[in-house]
Write a structure and sequence with these properties.
147 residues, alpha+beta, OB fold (Dihydrolipoamide Acetyltransferase, E2P), 4 helices, 24% strand, rod-shaped, NfeD-like_C, transmembrane helix, Membrane_assoc_protease
């Protein structure tokens, strides 16, 4: 098997791996392997050190282009806080699980228990999450509607 074919097969394997395990990184390495494969088909007598240097250089170039692309054209999402559980809690109503005394306690939100900071509140009180700081929910009392 020629070196060019090896690099093109490596590019194909990397591309398929990117599809199976998406992470938007292997695709850039696959592009570098494909470019190196085409170079090796055009210049089959290049020594292995030049092949690996070409692959390394093209990998760096492809990653830099990819980073620039994703910075200039960010991927839109219908749920931009999908992977930010803490940020998703802002505005949620939580129940005090361990009384908030001297500004700290614990609250329950759905099936999770979180450390909390806020005004003193008894166990069972309902509060609103207004921020999250270093994994601690900042809560405030819920304003009762005017009668």
């Amino acid at each position: 098997m020629s070196a060019g074919a090896f690099w093109l097969i490596a590019a194909l394997v990397l591309g398929v791996t990117e599809l199976v395990l998406p992470g938007v990184f292997l695709v850039f390495i696959a592009i570098a392997a494909a470019i190196t494969g085409v170079v090796m088909l055009a210049l089959p007598d290049l020594p292995p050190i030049v092949q690996f240097a070409s692959f390394a250089i093209w990998s760096g170039v492809a990653v830099m282009i990819g980073r620039r692309w994703y910075r200039d054209y960010p991927v839109a999402s219908s749920d931009p806080m999908l992977n930010d559980r803490g940020a998703r809690l802002i505005g949620e109503i939580v129940t005090v699980e361990q009384a908030i005394e001297s500004g700290s306690g614990r609250v329950r939100q759905a099936d999770g228990s979180w450390p909390a900071r806020g005004p003193d509140a008894p166990t069972g009180a309902r509060m609103r999450v207004v921020a999250i700081e270093a994994g601690v929910l900042v809560v405030e009392t819920i304003a009762l509607p005017a009668a």
